[in-house]
Each structure stands twice: as structure tokens, then as C-alpha cells.
């Protein structure tokens, strides 16, 4: 398993997954995304985005639209997507990385801390309000300094051994045929013949 920059040809795949998962596609640009790929099957397992907001005193970096396909969850894929995004932010000169999300407990394990909306830079205050109105009503602001970000060891081990599980399929509905009954020929105990 590895995480790499998204390619332009993956735009449709990304948009489809974002829509399926109900994630934020505001100001979508495929070049802002990274994608987790299984080395053996070459299947995509997860993705995430870094969004740079310009318009305040200084540019601001936000992690957004992070998703892991159901068959790859609980294997450290999301952790490594986030790690790559935070590394990218640090490479771009951002000391602090923000996220506006309803997954605060998940991000806390990497060093993200919840902050008050008033502590957000101006561009993110407006974005938080918009996100709460349109996408995630329970989104809260979080931040981490790039040098305090850390992936826990157990998630690193899971990621090294990640493999696609079977997505859960709903149980089929049982019908008369499942019990050896031909529904076209069957008579019923209380058939009145009407």
C-alpha cells in the first residue's frame, strides 16, 4: 500500500467517491488530492485533499474530503492519506494545518486539537459556517502543527498489511422458493377460492 498524488484521469473516480460518501467537493481540483493504492491489485483504497485558502493575511491550509472505501477501512489507510497531506503542507511552508470535520475523535489520535471557531483564520470561519449549513452540521474546527503530527504505530502496522475485505452485502430476501414451494402451484391452508 502506498499514497501518491492523484492523476488528472482519476477526476471522475474521485468525484464519484466524494458524492457516494457525502464529502465536500467545493472548489474541486484533482491535483489537490492524494490517493492510496494497493501495490498488488493496483486498486484505489482511499483519498484526501489539501486545500489552500488565500484571502486573509496569510494563506491557510485545510485538510478536507478524506475518504476510505468501505472494504479498506480500519486498516490505517486514512491515517496514511492524512500523513501524506500533512507532509505536503509542511513542504509548502505551512506550520499549522486545519480541518473542519465531524471526525474530531479520529483526528485527535494524530495530534489534532479542537479549537473554538473564533480561533480560526478568517477564510476558515466562513467556510465552517457554510460546511455546517450544507454538508456536515456537526463539523468542528481542529488544528495540528505539522511537527506534532504523528501516526500511531498500530496504524502503521495495519497499513503495511492492508488488504481489501469483502464489502458487506445485504442478506437476500427469502421467498417461497427458498422453502421448496412453487408459488404458482401452491395452495394455501386458508385459501377461500375467491
TrEMBL record:
Alphabetically sorted, this entry's keywords are: Transferase
Tell me where in this chain the N-acetyltransferase domain is found.
1-147
- Acidic residues compositional bias, start-end: 166-185
- UniProt-annotated stretches for the region Disordered: 154-194
Q: What is this protein called?
A: N-acetyltransferase
Q: Which InterPro entries match?
A: Acyl_CoA_acyltransferase, GNAT_dom
Tell me the classification of the organism that encodes this protein: Archaea, Methanobacteriati, Methanobacteriota, Stenosarchaea group, Halobacteria
UniProt keyword annotation of ATP-binding present: no
Does Chaperone count among this protein's keywords?
Answer: no
Q: Which Gene Ontology MF annotations are present?
A: acyltransferase activity, transferring groups other than amino-acyl groups
